[in-house]
Specification:
Layout lengths: L9 E2 L16 E3 L14 H13 L6 H7 L4 H19 L7 E9 L15 E9 L4 E8 L5 H11 L5 E4 L13 E4 L7 H4 L1 H16 L9 H12 L8 H11 L7
Parallel strand pairs: 3-6, 6-7
Antiparallel strand pairs: 1-2, 3-4, 4-5
Helix pairs in contact: 1-8, 2-3, 3-7
Length: 262
């Protein structure tokens, strides 16, 4: 998208952030802070580099409270840094479209009440999840918070997230029928005990995300849920290149326009 256009800067392929390293600033050979994620920052770049390293290196995620302690900044500052980085992660995933065999389902995330489950549960946010099925393993995943699951919303989600003409496997929810307009919709009313056979990888992705937010962050509010989805998808989609994630995230920050704070 035009508002998040990438800028041409030179980033070294490796990022030296080991303890005792005195050349952290030299990790970027040419960068203009103005007009990047680092725009108007009052923090030393070393703080940002350490934040990027910790965030990108821990697959279980790191909370703003923990981040504030390890890089020695206040919680509001760490929270602001996290917001900017997650925003950039989400924009980076935006242009991708899932292809080949795609699994799609929805789930409910968040909320404090446990007495009501399923669609319509109070204080929970519906999330639409789609995942490439690569046979032996999952491919890429995309997740998006929505107000409700209905035909118009699914039509827009498919336009943004799925490659036209590809096969999409679902659980036959009526609202998903709009997928037939631009994709090959493979719907099946599957018994609960066999649903993981029909949609194996998308359910694993959903389960992994819920463990991610409950384990490290102990739940999230609906207001910030999309940020956590952005982080999870960014890391999940680069799990085959785990060692490169810190340098990739640094390069993204150096080429992304400033992110506004909500």
């Amino acid at each position: 998208m035009a508002s998040n256009a990438r800028r041409a800067v030179t980033i070294r392929p490796t990022l030296c952030l080991t303890e005792g390293c005195t050349n952290v600033v030299a990790a970027i050979s040419s960068i203009r802070l103005s007009g990047t994620i680092f725009h108007s920052t009052k923090l030393p770049l070393q703080k940002w580099f350490w934040a990027i390293y910790w965030i990108a290196s821990d697959k279980d995620g790191i909370s703003a409270v923990r981040l504030s302690k390890v890089i020695e900044v206040s919680w509001p500052t760490a929270r602001s840094m996290w917001h900017k980085l997650r925003t950039a992660m989400g924009h980076r995933e935006g242009p991708y479209r899932l292809e080949t065999l795609i699994e799609l389902d929805d789930t409910l995330v968040g909320g404090k009440r446990k007495d009501k489950r399923g669609r319509g549960a109070e204080e929970k946010k519906p999330v639409v999840v789609a995942c490439d099925n690569r046979g032996e393993h999952a491919g890429f995943v995309t997740m998006e918070v929505v107000e409700s699951v209905h035909r118009k919303m699914i039509r827009g989600f498919a336009r943004r997230r799925l490659k036209e003409g590809e096969a999409v496997f679902t659980d036959a929810l009526t609202a998903l029928n709009s997928l037939e307009e631009n994709n090959l919709h493979m719907a099946s009313k599957t018994p609960p005990e066999k649903v993981d056979e029909w949609l194996p990888w998308v359910h694993i992705a959903i389960s992994n995300f819920k463990q991610f937010i409950l384990g490290t962050f102990h739940g999230v509010s609906g207001k910030y849920l999309q940020e956590y989805l952005n982080e999870f998808c960014y890391r999940f989609n680069r799990r085959q290149w785990e060692a490169e994630i810190p340098a990739r995230l640094l390069g993204l920050c150096a080429t992304h326009l400033p992110a506004k704070i909500c």
